[in-house]
Amino acid sequence: MVFLTAQLFVRSRGPDEFWRKRQIFKLAAHYIGRKRNCYSIAIKNVHRALLKTTRGRQLKKQDMRELWETRLNGATHEHNISLRILLEGLNRCNILLNRKSLANLAIWEPRTFKCLSDIACAKAKLGGIKRVANNSMPETVMIKGLVDELD
Amino acid sequence: MSLLRKGQQWGTFACVWHIFDATWQDPFKSAHLIKKYLMGLHKPIYHPLNQCGDHVIVINSKEIALRGDHWQKRVYFHHTGYHGGATWTLAWELHSKDPTMIIKKAIYSAMDGTLQRRFTMQRLHIFPDDNVPKEMLENVSNQIKQLRPVPNRLYEIPQEERDKIPRLIQYPSDYQLK
After folding, report:
1. What domains sit in chain A, N to C, each tagged with a CATH number?
2. What are the chain A neighbours of B45 within 8 Å (beta carbons)?
3. Residue of B nearest to A71 (CA)
4. What domains can be seen in chain B, in order of their start residue?
5. Residues 6+ apart with CB under 8 A from A21
């Protein structure tokens, strides 16, 4: 668009008022009462809702991560280690599973999860982590390949 | 669903009964331990909205031990809602009125104030001594480990064994013991 004068610039602002408002009303369609019928009230609530969805996208991820950690805490304490030891041990073994899949394994594949926690425990013990010093060495783990290379 | 899977389903969602002996235990520290079992935090299927908590029976709540001078200094506040209706009760007073109250309040306040809290508390059964109804005791399948071992008192050790304890020093014959 070409604006020759300032007057024309003011007149040609944005799309038609009806359509502009209709955009907002569409977003407010499921609200109750004047929130959906009166534009000035609707736009306030739509703005608030949009802000909340932005925040909610982050919150959802944080909440899920928190839930997985709580679940893993419960699952690991069954095998006498903590979540920190599990993650540290698996990382050192280069088993790159995230919290989501570990939590799913703990629920649906408890024996697989027990093996994983055994590996993590053995690796942590060989790595000299004090927290697991009193745990007995898991018998199911082949220790030979687990020892850290000197560096 | 096959019979095996059915059994797994039952096993996963089964409600376990635990027992906890509160003899000589700190109620505020053991509250955090018991809370886990009540809310189901020890299970990998935990979700704040699903009911996965277990039952916990606490016995010997009469024998709890408070740290330092907390019996004299810890105060429980209550307000009736009327003017001048505030009361402050010391821990030893509350304990002499109802020996289950201190541990109950400790567990209640250890949990977050959600809508589930009061229902979770219904799964807790506290007894001042070890007289647990038989039908409750039949359900129990796990004992929660105490946070610290119950210490032996010197007067509970029989005299013959007490004499066997090696002495580091011998008091002079004219030394006045209090």
Report:
1. 14-57 (no CATH), 65-146 (1.10.1900.20)
2. 71, 107
3. B44
4. 17-66+99-146 (3.90.1180.10)
5. A39
